[in-house]
Amino acid sequence: MTRPITQDMPTTTMSDPDIETEPGPRITHTHLILLAAALAIPGLAWGTYYWLTNKDAADYLQAAEAHTTQGDTKSAIVALKNALQLAPDHAEARYRLGKLYVGIHDYIAAEKELKLAREKGHAAPDLALLLTRTWLALGQPERVIDELPVPEGAAPALTAPLLALRAHSGCATTPRLPKSRCCRPRPCVRTRLRRC
User: Fold this and answer.
1) How many domains are contained in the chain?
2) Whether residue 134 is found in the same domain as residue 92
3) Do residues 109 and 163 share a domain?
4) Does residue 117 share a domain with residue 144?
5) Which domain holds residue 145?
6) More exposed terminus of the chain, fewer Cβ within 10 Å: N or C?
7) pTM beyond 0.70
8) Among candidate residues 163, 164, 137, the one with its CA nearest the CA of residue 151
9) Is residue 73 part of a domain?
10) Per-residue tens of pLDDT for the chain, all 196 residues
């Protein structure tokens, strides 16, 4: 409620020290800091988003290599999957992912990635060896003989284990003889050995 101004009311001037006036808007240091933070936070968020979304497959391969050397297999797998989302035809990423899957005994995923790496033309010397181990672990030894020839010109350090695994596959695919036809020495052979 306002009172009407009458003549007997004292008039005030701005220079009167007894009257309190409301201060106008004052900008303090706190206001400036809050304003700067309000402008900086969206800029930082945009910069982080830009940095995260503008990575390429090579960046993720480097991150996967770093995680692998640190022994963090799960993070390396995530980095390689991110690389494959950006470049699905990247044979090196598929090979590394398949190799990591073999290391953690996920042979179904390893088979998928290693076969795709081979189809994309990846020529790692131990690709055939990894596929052989994968198929033997999955109980598919016939695939080793049918689908993987011994690579020509490969180093003996790689062909020897591959040939051994192929031989193991061949033994696993041959049918077992019944016990009656099992290879046992005949009695006459035993008696000759005892006489000597």
Assistant:
1) 2
2) no
3) no
4) no
5) 125-171
6) N
7) no
8) 163
9) yes
10) 555 555 555 555 555 555 555 666 676 778 778 777 777 787 777 666 555 566 788 889 999 999 999 999 999 999 999 999 988 999 999 999 999 999 999 999 999 999 999 999 888 878 888 998 898 899 888 888 788 776 677 777 777 777 777 777 666 555 554 544 444 444 444 444 444 4
